[in-house]
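Please fill in the sequence for the structure shown.

STRUCTURE ENCODING:
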């Protein structure tokens, strides 16, 4: 009987991948993980943005224009306190107006008046101020001259179909348009993209739409984010508090008297039964 050569590879066992059931984490996990430090170099400087916007130009140079933007109340207050005079001086616009704060709403209308190109550049610079500085305190999001995350919201008076037809084929990163509150034919258009694409889109709006019915901010109805009934309960006055206290006190006294009466009737019935 001849001996058969056995290949050791047939009896070789495959090693199993063993994973630990419990990961070895430090007890001080939060302390061991340093927070992300703000990068001061991921946001372009203001003067570079200013020079870059000067190179963006549309053929309609002398046409007087008006553009309405929507900012929240805190953003508008920062512009009023820090940037209003600088915007007029640096971009040569005629004026910048801010609507009054509306009850139960954070929307503020910012209206730019001036020549065509200056209004467009100023609007883009406001988008830079709001996105890159005001709402980017920790500088976690980069904003460069070519970034596509600049966003702004503008009010356009026109039909919904006309607005979407005009934006068809544009290279903006994202766009959304909806009727602004209960104002018919007034749309809130939200754009997000880079400076060049935003400039082209705004130029289309100003070239094809003008404010007629909604030229003055007083005509625009800013809808509150909460109902009027909810608003009454947010800041109740002293009179309503006193009235509520009187009602509560009356309810308590009525409840006590009814309990006493029912208890007295029950005791009298028990005595008669005895």
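FILLED IN BY: designer on duty
SEQUENCE:
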């Amino acid at each position: 009987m001849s001996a058969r050569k056995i290949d050791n590879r047939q009896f070789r066992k495959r090693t199993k991948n063993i994973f630990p059931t419990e990961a070895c984490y430090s007890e001080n996990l939060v302390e061991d993980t340093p927070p992300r430090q703000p990068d001061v170099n991921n946001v372009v400087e203001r003067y570079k943005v200013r020079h870059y916007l000067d190179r963006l130009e549309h053929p309609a140079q002398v046409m007087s224009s008006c553009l309405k933007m929507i900012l929240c109340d805190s953003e508008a207050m920062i512009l009023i306190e820090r940037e209003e005079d600088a915007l007029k001086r640096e971009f040569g616009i005629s004026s910048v107006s801010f609507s009054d704060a509306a009850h139960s709403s954070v929307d503020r209308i910012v209206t730019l008046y001036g020549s065509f190109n200056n209004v467009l550049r100023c609007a883009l610079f406001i988008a830079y101020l709001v996105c890159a500085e005001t709402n980017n305190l920790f500088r976690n999001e980069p904003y460069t001259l070519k970034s596509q995350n600049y966003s702004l919201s503008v009010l356009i008076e026109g039909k919904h179909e006309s607005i979407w037809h005009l934006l068809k084929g544009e290279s903006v990163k994202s766009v959304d348009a909806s009727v602004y509150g209960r104002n018919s034919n007034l749309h809130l258009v939200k754009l997000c993209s880079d400076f060049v694409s935003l400039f082209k889109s705004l130029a289309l709006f100003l070239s094809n739409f003008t404010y007629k019915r909604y030229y003055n901010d007083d005509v625009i109805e800013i809808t509150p984010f909460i109902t009027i009934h909810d608003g009454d309960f947010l800041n109740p006055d002293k009179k309503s508090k006193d009235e509520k206290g009187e009602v509560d006190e009356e309810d308590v006294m009525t409840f006590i008297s009814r309990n006493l009466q029912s208890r007295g009737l029950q005791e009298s019935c028990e005595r008669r039964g005895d």
